[in-house]
């Protein structure tokens, strides 16, 4: 006889939510499976019921053939700051939401106030600056110091999301700047301002408002002590552009690096310098990353870093000193520590340089950060020069990636890099094989297939022999 009793429904298990990225899981973990943060899973509400079947609803925007879709609405508008527009892909796009993140005191508010002034002076429409961290009087004092007072800039000090949306309805800006998204709270969402739920709700509401009004929106974001953007990871997915504003507070250089960009290149960089009355653009900052000296110094070599469409000659400096321990430290600044350690290992294995028990220090001039492998060859030449206490010839630039077998691998944009080096006065270059076809006029370029060939050309009178006899050289 069949029983009519039903099996009781299994109770819903509690969910655990990550306070760093918002990821939910039914089981507790010591480390978040999504963002890899330790100890960030907190017990929260039970997960919702299973997805139910939905019926088709009314269509708001009928599908069009892709050829018939108009792209005029997403044409970028130049803000007036050329370096800022370079990173954005030509300017501020109507309806785009931009997240600008950076450390406290680096100058995010100053940069955006300069962008607001340039936008208003060009007559692109009203600018609404919403500040949740400072009072309106504090922002006005900074604007007076920067000479950024303009009739087209409106200022509001708000910390409530509904009040911010009310200000947008009142001003009807073409550019909205919110400083910062972590200080705005939505009254309909639980939690304090800056929490995962609050940041997600505020960003989603402002994004929807920007899309509906076809209004460019810039959100200022905080960063953690590790340099990552604070708040849920979904924040970076919601916005269209993610920018990092970087710089040492003890240096005048500031850089805006693109991390994500739906409207242009995602690896572009813009350069600025801090001045007493605000911030100024630096169209050609190459002089900050080179040292002008009358006599060459051992342990230095110049490479050309490629960031987006910008090629930048950067000097690498190394220093080798005895260490009291058996294994010396490897300290780098502005370079990738993993690649620097690999270059040191290649030198010890293939060039006969003994670095055991010695400290190796490597740094870039001016604080420029190089993450690409094209600086491997220049770093190897600089370390070898420091170990031999013999300087490299003046006017030499080295470009190339090193393999573990000490071979030199090709890198992209060699012609662009050589042109940038020749523009600032470099006369000789060592490049990977097959890269010297488009050399600048007047520059002597040599192709090195291995680290040994590069060392022979660069060390001592190697460059002199190559210059006079043209051994394996081009030009």
TrEMBL record:
Recorded domain comment: The middle region has homology to RecA with ATPase motifs including the RadA KNRFG motif, while the C-terminus is homologous to Lon protease.
A matching Pfam family: Zn_ribbon_LapB
Annotated binding of ATP, by residue: 102-109
Motif RadA KNRFG motif, chain ranges: 260-264
A GO molecular-function descriptor: damaged DNA binding
Protein name, per record: DNA repair protein RadA
Biological role: DNA-dependent ATPase involved in processing of recombination intermediates, plays a role in repairing DNA breaks. Stimulates the branch migration of RecA-mediated strand transfer reactions, allowing the 3' invading strand to extend heteroduplex DNA faster. Binds ssDNA in the presence of ADP but not other nucleotides, has ATPase activity that is stimulated by ssDNA and various branched DNA structures, but inhibited by SSB. Does not have RecA's homology-searching function.
Gene that encodes it: radA
Taxonomic source organism: Nakamurella multipartita (strain ATCC 700099 / DSM 44233 / CIP 104796 / JCM 9543 / NBRC 105858 / Y-104) (Microsphaera multipartita)
HAMAP family reported in the protein's UniProt record: RadA_bact (MF_01498)
InterPro entries: AAA+_ATPase, DNA_repair_RadA, P-loop_NTPase, RecA_ATP-bd, Ribosomal_Su5_D2-typ_SF, Ribsml_uS5_D2-typ_fold_subgr, Rubredoxin_2
Gene Ontology CC: one annotated term: cytosol
Family matches, as SMART domains: AAA (SM00382)
Organism phylogeny: Bacteria, Bacillati, Actinomycetota, Actinomycetes, Nakamurellales
Recorded family membership: Belongs to the RecA family. RadA subfamily.
Domain RecA family profile: 73-223
Superkingdom assignment: Bacteria
UniProt entry keywords in alphabetical sequence: ATP-binding, DNA damage, DNA repair, DNA-binding, Hydrolase, Metal-binding, Nucleotide-binding, Stress response, Zinc, Zinc-finger
Membrane-traversing stretches: none
Region feature Lon-protease-like, mapped onto this chain: 359-475
GO BP of this protein: recombinational repair
């Amino acid at each position: 006889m069949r029983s009519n009793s039903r099996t009781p429904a299994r109770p819903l298990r509690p969910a655990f939510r990550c306070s760093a990225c918002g990821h939910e899981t039914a089981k507790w973990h010591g480390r978040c499976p999504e963002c890899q943060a330790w100890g960030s899973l907190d017990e929260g509400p039970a997960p919702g019921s299973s997805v139910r079947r939905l019926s088709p609803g009314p269509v708001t925007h009928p599908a069009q053939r892709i050829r018939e879709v108009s792209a005029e609405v997403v044409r970028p508008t130049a803000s007036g700051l050329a370096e800022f527009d370079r990173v954005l892909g030509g300017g501020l796009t109507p309806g785009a939401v931009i997240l600008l993140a950076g450390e406290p005191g680096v100058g995010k508010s100053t940069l955006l106030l300069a962008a607001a002034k340039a936008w208003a002076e060009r007559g692109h429409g009203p600018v609404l600056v919403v500040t949740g961290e400072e009072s309106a009087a504090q922002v006005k004092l900074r604007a007076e110091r920067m000479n950024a007072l303009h009739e087209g800039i409106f200022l509001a000090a708000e910390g409530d999301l509904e009040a911010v949306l009310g200000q947008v309805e009142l001003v009807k800006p073409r550019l909205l700047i919110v400083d910062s998204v972590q200080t705005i709270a939505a009254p309909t969402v639980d939690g304090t301002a800056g929490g995962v739920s609050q940041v997600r709700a505020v960003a989603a509401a402002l994004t929807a408002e920007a899309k509906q009004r076809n209004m460019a929106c810039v959100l200022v974001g905080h960063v953690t002590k590790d340099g990552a953007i604070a708040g849920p990871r979904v924040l970076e997915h919601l916005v269209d552009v993610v920018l990092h504003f970087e710089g040492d507070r003890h240096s005048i250089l500031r850089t805006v690096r693109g991390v994500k960009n739906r409207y242009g290149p995602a690896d572009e960089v813009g350069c600025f310098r801090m001045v007493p009355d605000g911030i100024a653009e630096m169209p050609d900052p190459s002089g900050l990353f080179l040292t002008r000296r009358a006599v060459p110094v051992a342990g230095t070599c110049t490479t050309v870093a490629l960031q987006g469409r910008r090629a930048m000659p950067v000097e690498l400096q190394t220093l080798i000193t005895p260490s009291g321990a058996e294994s010396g430290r490897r300290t780098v600044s502005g370079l990738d520590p993993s690649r620097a350690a690999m270059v040191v290992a290649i030198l010890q294995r293939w060039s006969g340089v003994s670095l055991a028990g010695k400290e190796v220090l490597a740094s870039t001039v001016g604080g420029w950060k190089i993450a690409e492998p094209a600086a491997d060859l220049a770093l190897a030449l600089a370390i070898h020069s420091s170990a031999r206490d013999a300087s490299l010839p003046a006017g030499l630039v080295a470009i190339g990636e090193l393999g573990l077998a000490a071979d030199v691998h090709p890198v992209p944009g060699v012609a662009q890099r050589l042109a940038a080096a020749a523009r600032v006065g470099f006369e000789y270059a060592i490049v990977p094989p097959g890269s010297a076809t488009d050399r600048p006029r007047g520059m002597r370029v040599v192709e090195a297939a291995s680290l040994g060939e590069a060392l022979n050309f660069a060390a001592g009178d190697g460059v002199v022999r190559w210059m006079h006899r043209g051994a394996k050289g081009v030009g």
